[in-house]
Design goal:
The protein is 76% helix and 0% strand. It is mostly helical. Helix 1 packs antiparallel against helix 2 and helix 3 packs antiparallel against helix 4 (61-83).
Length: 92
């Protein structure tokens, strides 16, 4: 989650940074409660973060935005699958 906070800081968007600081404790609690790292999701997120960072470093804002949208979509689908009782988080 530090990655997300650093991205918010780099964006110089104080609202985004404040929001991240407010919601991070709840995110951590849910990660622990749902054991989200058990199925490889953690590694997929790391790969997605790496892709986002590569685009930022390259100065490609459009590609970074697209990679971020794809990451958020994936996280949303994963979260929905957990909420719907799919304990492996695959959505299937």
């Amino acid at each position: 989650l530090l990655f997300h906070i650093k991205i918010a800081e780099a964006s110089q968007n104080n609202v985004l940074k404040s929001l991240m600081l407010i919601i991070t404790p709840d995110i951590v609690n849910n990660f622990i409660k749902l054991d989200v790292c058990k199925d490889g999701r953690f590694y997929r997120s790391l790969e997605e973060h790496h892709t986002i960072l590569q685009h930022i470093v390259a100065g490609d804002a459009e590609a970074a935005s697209e990679a971020m949208r794809a990451h958020l979509k994936d996280v949303l689908e994963y979260s929905k699958s957990l909420r719907n009782g799919n304990t492996n988080g695959t959505g299937h």
